[in-house]
Amino acid sequence: MASSSGFVREFLKSGHSPTLFAAFLYFSFSCCIWVLNGAMAPFISETFNLNPAEKGLMLSVPIVAGALMRFPLGLLSQYIGRKKATLVEMGLIAVAMMFGFFFVKSFNDLLAMGVLLGIAGASFGVALSLGSGSFPARHKGLAMGLVGAGNVGTAVSVLIAPPLAQAFGWVAVYGIAAVAISIPMIVMVIYAQEPPDIDKHASFKEHIACLFEKDGWAFSLIYAVTFGGFIGLATFLPTYYYDQFGVSKVQAGQLTMLAAFMGAALRVFGGWISDRLGGINTLTVVLATIALTLVACGFAGQSLTATTLLIILCFAALGAGNGAVFQLVPLRWPMSTAVAGSMIGEIGALGGGLVPSTMGVAKQYGGSYMWGFFFFAALSLLMLVMLRSMQLRWTRTWAEKGGRARSA
């Protein structure tokens, strides 16, 4: 116990803890708002009488929009500072929520609202870079894992949005979100400070170098499975539970919350264990687990209990994988982590946009969601093969064996 408490004290003293907390809160609220349409999908689908393909499109738009906005926000943060960039973004989120409250009257309006929800999804790279920027390399995996655990906002969203939608109407939830975003804004203004880890004199070309490297795309594709799978499934699961098993709208959100919470919590573990065993080793186990659980989910479509247990295990692996990826990113790009993280997060979230649309198409044209599960299991296995083929070069150039940080 003493050793554990000593490690916690050492970790907290090694960086700026108030900024870490502010970044976590900012990312949590952003994730909560980003998946609002997914959390309220059974209510929205009933209002507009959507078919499976339309549901998939409606759920994919916020994910894709958020992905496309990540890199520009990360680049902006390199020039105006990460703290200022978060405040600009949260202000825009509040405006977007007011649009939803006053102007969403049709399916086309709903798709436009999905684009605006993407503003919240842009937060990822900046949040992680801000929260971990003052921590040394040996603790960056844990710091990024703690900020990344703001994914718990997806669990909060699917837990509280359905009861609010049932009580006040789903459009009213947008208005509530517009007010709620003021909380992380106030915390950010009071407690956060700009970390000193970015080279202010680095050129634009140096900042975006990861866009032109194999490693950048390798991490992006792996993250498309881990984070893309997390956000895509978290957005789609309320619809899946409601359609596949006939549970109530609120129960669908509660079941999704169990999985999303597990994924968010295990992100911290993924960062922590990757600091010790290496991100490459952790990702090897993660990708194999994702593939196996998704195949099993495809075959378990008639059992609510088996599906829920398998989904929770899958989300545990997805969360740990997210932490593992971002233990490796600052080791590979130590002076441009914000932009590298935003680019990798952008491609990863684009992968998430495939999940609801692919599942909807599988159901409408293949007659079963099973084929969607099988498709993403195959992608996970492909990423595992790619990881193992590249790990030897990584451990010879910028990482220790297994993907640990090199000693100073």
Helix and strand element order:
HHHHHHHHHHHHHHHHHHH
What's the pLDDT, averaged over the residues? 91
CATH architecture designation? Up-down Bundle
Please give the share of residues in helix: over 70%
Give me the count of strands: 0
Residue stretches low in confidence (pLDDT < 50, at least 5 long) are none
Shape: globular
How far apart are the termini? Answer: 28 Å
Instruction: Quote the beta fraction.
Output: under 5%
How many domain regions? 1
Q: Considering the protein shown, what is the CATH homologous superfamily?
A: MFS general substrate transporter like domains
Which CATH C-level class is it?
A: Mainly Alpha
CATH topology: Growth Hormone, Chain: A
Q: Largest beta sheet, briefly? A: none
Structural class: mainly alpha
- Spatial extent as radius of gyration: 20 Å
- How many DSSP helices? 19
Describe, in plain words, how this protein is organized in 3D.
The structure is a single chain. This protein is mainly α. It has helices at residues 2-13, 17-34, 36-39, 41-48, 52-80, 82-103, 107-121, 124-132, 137-148, 152-168, 170-180, 182-191, 204-207, 214-245, 249-277, 279-299, 304-332, 337-366, 370-397. It has a single domain, classed as MFS general substrate transporter like domains (Growth Hormone, Chain: A, Up-down Bundle), CATH 1.20.1250.20. The longest helix is centred in the middle third of the chain and has 32 residues, at 214-245.
